Amino acid sequence: MGHSGAVWDQRAAIEISKDWNGIDQILLRSPRGGSARVSLHGGQVISWRNDKGEELLFTSAKAIFKPPKAIRGGIPICFPQFGNCGSLEQHGFARNKMWVIEENPPPLPPNDSNGKAFIDLLLKPSEEDLKGWPHSFEFRLRVSLAANGDLSMISRVRNINGKPFTYSFAYHTYLSVSDISEVRIEGLETLDYLDNLCQKERFTEQGDAITFESEVDRVYLSTPNVIAVLDHEKKRTFVIKKEGLPDVVVWNPWDKKSKAMADFGDEEYKYMLCVDGAAIEKPITIKPGEEWTGRLELSVVPSSYCSEYFDPHQRGF
């Protein structure tokens, strides 16, 4: 190659192993030392570490990694519904199914693969699934890790049904924070939200940033494509960029609800915050042969750096 080792071998950055239940996990590595781990159980990102090896996602110490139970933490994929409505299990079935690695998926634009370690996963409905949700689909997921450690997820849902179908969707991202009372979200001020603690009643956000002192379970509507989550104690900021996902879910169960969840520690609410790119208020409908794409990109920057460049009204990627 003649670049004295400067060329990064994409293949060497991907490692497949089995977890203690015999389920395949894919480890993606960036040349600077960052990593992301994806389980075929749910197509779920279960770890994302920076180049210092610090874990950026929260996973409960009580999480159950055995299907058909969903994994409490990381980034579960909520499809074809978010929440609890109708006959499907809460948050849909995608996060409870076994996905497969797809060797030759339909191509994505070059900037979605150049210089990144990535894995392509595929979920198709089983006969059993079609009984509960009678729509044929192909759900393709690419998880990629850029050289600078940014994590991105691209979901493509194709309708291979004879008729249109409708679904809602969320990347249910559990961020790891130092202390929930030291965290604030910027980019959602002045927006309307549906409050799940008040029968989905609609309110307008009054705060100049969102902070936490009690249980929060909201769907913010018509949100900008860039949101920032500032962790004062760690002096770091998560920057969440999204595309095709108009809503943002903000969730922290606080103390009472934490005690009621079997797969969640009583005090763990202090160290996590869910901020999801989502499409909930206006579900997505795709016609036969059509494909929908929803993207999420997560990066972490020092908070001092963030305030200088972060513009919540900036559009797109």
From TrEMBL:
The EC number(s) this enzyme carries: 5.1.3.15
Biological process annotations from GO: carbohydrate metabolic process
One annotated GO molecular function: glucose-6-phosphate 1-epimerase activity
Gene3D superfamilies: 2.70.98.10
InterPro entries assigned: Aldose_1/G6P_1-epimerase, G6P_1-epimerase, Gal_mutarotase_sf_dom, GH-type_carb-bd
The entry's keywords: Isomerase
Residues reported in the UniProt entry to bind substrate: R72, Q90, R95
Catalytic activity: alpha-D-glucose 6-phosphate = beta-D-glucose 6-phosphate
GO CC aspect terms: cytoplasm
Sequence similarity: Belongs to the glucose-6-phosphate 1-epimerase family.
Protein name per Swiss-Prot or TrEMBL: glucose-6-phosphate 1-epimerase
Native source organism of the sequence: Stephania cephalantha
Lineage summary: Eukaryota, Viridiplantae, Streptophyta, Embryophyta, Tracheophyta
